[in-house]
Amino acid sequence: MSFKKGPFFICFLVLLFGMIFAKSAISGGRKMSLQWKLGYEHYSYAYEEPGVMQNRANFDGAVFSVTYRRYLMLRLEGRWAKAKVDYSSSSSAKIKNIDDRMYELRGLFGYNFYLHNSIVTPFVGYAYRYLNDDSENMYSTAGEIGYDRESNYYYSPIGLEFISYLDKNWIIGSTVEYDYLWHGIQYSYLGYVPGYWDIKNKQYHGYGARISFLLARKINRSAYLGIEPFYRYWRIEDSRIDVDPAGRKLMEPYNRTTELGIQLFIMF
């Protein structure tokens, strides 16, 4: 499955579709309820191709979201982060301080169920995750040359959000989510190495999952300061095989990604 318009266009369509159906919820002169969230996140990152290699790092980055909430929940959210990554292979070859950067953009659409002082929101959406791992012109301790690699995931979050207002000052919440992978595309820029070519591998089998817990305290009339521990996971199966001009059959092997960390944010 391919979306040639790109992730930003798809997220825009998700929000536009939701706004059409939100018309009845904001009719009669009632104002939309908008909530902004801005913050910082830090997480431990581990990427593993079992029996082949692994990457490990600590990422730091920024997060944002804007949420409309009345009967419907519409949300646009994103994050950006970077790190210095340490690579090691099954043969004990190592490369340290590889520049990695990532960003993710998500559009979510859900319906709110109000229960006393709590809100339960099942949601779906569409999202794009990008990761760049750039070891071009770097050599491992075994003399292996690195290369620039781009990872692209196109997926749909399917989840449940719970928020409870304990009193006038405190909010607690949690989110559980399953991520359905539509497809992934991996670009391996090997073409700068004599005798090699750039490779494009497509992935069609895999999934992700995430869980988070939220605690926030009111700091003035309209703002909350909060903390949100989280865990994110990806499991992606072997990609399709790409054959380069030299006849080499290359694929992106089965891999796992885990991200365990924490967000600090202000919500208003």
Report on this model:
This protein is mainly beta. It has one domain: Lipocalin (Beta Barrel). 6% of the residues lie in helices and 65% in strands. The protein has one helix and 14 strands. The chain has one helix at residues 7-21; strands at 34-49, 53-69, 72-89, 94-111, 113-115, 118-134, 148-165, 170-189, 199-203, 206-218, 224-236, 242-243, 249-250, 255-267. The strands form two sheets. Strands 1-2-3-4-6-7-8-10-11-14 form a ten-stranded antiparallel β-barrel. A two-stranded antiparallel ribbon has the order 12-13. A hairpin with a 5-residue loop joins strand 10 and strand 11 (224-236). The protein is elongated and about 65 Å long. Residues 1-5 and 18-32 have low confidence and may be disordered.
In short:
With 268 residues, the protein is mainly beta. The chain has one helix at residues 7-21; strands at 34-49, 53-69, 72-89, 94-111, 113-115, 118-134, 148-165, 170-189, 199-203, 206-218, 224-236, 242-243, 249-250, 255-267.
Structural features:
268 residues, mainly beta, Lipocalin, 10-stranded antiparallel barrel, two-stranded antiparallel sheet, 1 helix, disordered N terminus
pLDDT < 50 stretches: 1-5, 18-32
Helical residue percent band: under 10%
- What percent of residues are in strands? over 45%
Specify the overall morphology: elongated
At CATH level 2, the architecture is Beta Barrel
Mean pLDDT: 90
CATH homologous superfamily classification: OPCA outer membrane adhesin/invasin
SSE order, one letter for each helix or strand: HEEEEEEEEEEEEEE
**Count of strand segments:** 14
Count of distinct structural domains: 1
Specify the CATH class.
Answer: Mainly Beta
Number of helices: 1
Look at the helices and sheets and give the structural class: mainly beta
CATH structural fold name: Lipocalin
* Major sheet attributes: 10 strands, antiparallel, barrel
Output the strand order for the largest sheet. Answer: 1-2-3-4-6-7-8-10-11-14
